[in-house]
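Blinded run. Sample ID left blank on purpose so nobody reads anything into the name before looking at the predicted structure. Input follows.
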Amino acid sequence: MPITEVGGHRFKISHLDRVLWPQTGTTKAELLHYYATVGEVMLPHLRGRQVSFVRTPDGVEGQRFFQKRPPAGTPDWVTVAETVRNSGETMEQVQVDDLATLVWAGNLSCVEIHTHQWLADAPGTADRLVLDLDPGPGRTVVDCCRVALLLRDRLAEDGLTSWAKTSGSKGLHLLAALRGASPQSASDYAKAVARELETRHPDTVISRMTRADRTGKVFIDWSQNAARKTTAAPYTVRARETPTVSTPVSWREVAAAERPEHLGFTIADVPGRIAVDGDLMAGLLDPGSAGALPGS
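Blinded prediction complete.
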């Protein structure tokens, strides 16, 4: 079994030729290469945050599971932090704070990486607002783009600057940096904004969880701001039919999108985008971009 060294840490890697995406023939080696390549821009969005993984050890068409606790055999150099659950019990979770941990996780076929909207050392403070736009039957990511522009302008009315990324699935995510918010206040605010947009645009927007009502509309999922929820991290690969990526996009791209494929990016596309544009979501990491929620 080969040994690799990343950032001064040595660990075994295995089954590099295993095909994780049968439709495209994409292997674990290609997944590891992608994460190693984008690590410089991805890690700032992960560092200091507890993560959950979607693991697909037999490939995306085989068994998959959502893992919150550290995998068996987690090396002692991997940062692990405790969180207190609603029940009062504590639970350990991994933090992907460095490139070695990112590559180690990829070697375990941790295809997807999801983060909370708070830092591990401040679990009572939400520093991110997230709105997940999900197209209902008859709608696509292009329709999500139109709603995203409405949301961007609505958040700006409250002094919040937002950034967009594809979900890597069917929709879009909008994120804004927050200052001095609790997970509950962030969730309440996101719900209020989603309901307001639904009231203004009832033919195209829905904020209610009822799936049967989503046909022909874009669902604004505000619930991912709850303290217990996680969201796909910027630049994470998704365990879909092909190795799509949750990819930061510019507002110009959002406004110009006319077909779903205009916002469909895979591990083959993203490194080139970064080489040209850098991290299109870098502003989210700037402390000066954080805004306060109304009334706080």
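Unblinding after everyone has recorded impressions. The longest strand covers residues 126-135.
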